[in-house]
Automatic annotation (TrEMBL):
Residues 21-32, 39-48 have a biased composition (Polar residues). The keyword Secreted does not apply. GO terms for molecular function: metallocarboxypeptidase activity; zinc ion binding. The active site is at residue 363. PANTHER family: CARBOXYPEPTIDASE M, PROTEASE M14 CARBOXYPEPTIDASE. The keyword Protease applies. Residues 1-17 form the signal peptide. It comes from the Eukaryota. Its cofactor is Zn(2+). This is Carboxypeptidase M isoform X1. Pfam families: CarboxypepD_reg, Peptidase_M14. Belongs to the peptidase M14 family.
Amino acid sequence: MERLFSFLFFLVLTVTAQNVPSNHKPTENSVGSGRILNYSPSSGQDQNTDVKIEDTYSNPSIDRRYQDTAPSNYNLDPGPVEQDKYGYEFKYHDFDQMTRFLRETTAKYPSLTALYSIGKSVQGRDLWVMVVSSSPYEHMIGKPDVKYIGNIHGNEAVSRELLLQLIYYLVTSYSTDSYAQWLLDNTRIHIMPSMNPDGFEVSKEGQCDTGPGRYNARGYDLNRNFPDYFKQNNKRMQPEAEAVKEWVSKIQFVLSGSLHGGALVASYPFDNTPNSRICKSSALCSLFQNYASSPSLTPDDDVFKHLSLIYSTNHAKMSKGVACKTSKGFLKGITNGAAWYPLTGGMQDFNYIWHGCMEVTLEVSCCKYPPAKELPRYWEDNKVALIKFLSEAHRGVHGFVMDEHGNPVEKASLKIKTRDVGFQTTKYGEFWRILLPGVYKMEVYADGFVPKEVEFMVVNEHPTLLNVTLHPSQYGAYYPKPVLLPSISIMQVQKPRPVYNVTGDFAFPQD
């Protein structure tokens, strides 16, 4: 084992200088056979396969194609996608049609895709996830996992179709688009087109602002259903949200985007704030936006703003601050979530605080469920942004935590000094953190080891590779562990929040 990991670390240090062959394409034998994984969190068992979702981290292969910086001379936008590969067309896919398309994709491209389910909706529909990567069935050491989730609100249908089209584009462009090839060779992309398939089935095409389908089959808003750091969330946990919680606890995602509709903006954490009151109606929310827009900033505010700008500036319209009928325009197309309107139980705050995953909410269309004939335009507006956003997982620092014998240290706790939101190592000692250029210090803690602080530099051109060696502590020695959640003292509270009365009216408190 010691020799294996010594070789792997040497390999990671050396292969980054190699170029990805332009004509390379993985073979079916090298990465899998196109099986469909159907994982049930409740039972812990798979159906129709002997592979569990957590086993995608087992038996890692050595990927000599690993390259951690994107090619500089690629053409990301080669023109319209040909619709002749295996019958894809721009339309709204109901659940059966979506399932058929995903299965056809993994059958057509078994060396680039793997399909699995993380659970079931209230009405028993699978929560499908498609992995798109040149290593879809197994984790490659040093290669980050990223994800997109769409259709968390069932009537926000554009997000669902954008993600299906993204899958299609990535697999059909792998052999012709150098950027798509680089991204799939160096990243495992998990795409969930619909987190709320039940809601979608009852939503109505042409309903831009309201209409049925926002909630799940039990009437719950799934983007208010996650644990919340600022306030106790007493809402009954729904199976769709529970499945996502289980999912992100098994795979260490580095970067995530949650796609919504109804506005054109990239919204970043925090969504909640220590002293917020949540508006109860759309009219109150509108007033709240105008009179109580105070940001609630994370310790990684610079990174979140950067990620949001990556999406908005690569979108055809978002960075122009385009206003929608029911939503104001936003400067440069980005906003802090709480500054827009605060909410309790949001998914992006949960991803960030509980799992160290940088998630941004991406509002990709003014109309939530526009006519299907408009879908090609929405794809062209979002295509480059969707791809460029994922590449940001290769920014900052990544590396390994080992003991003095070269063995990986699993579940070591890490945090960047002055940024009190932590992250952990994988079972292979890997870690990733998206950071902007600068000099940083990282604190590393693990049971049975002496804590360590290391200083490193991040540059813009490529991610920094940082290997950390820990030494065993003396018997009985005690070292305090880091605080993995932000303390309330770091939250910025700049403006008094409104006080609500029993009728739902509000006014600002008087000093």
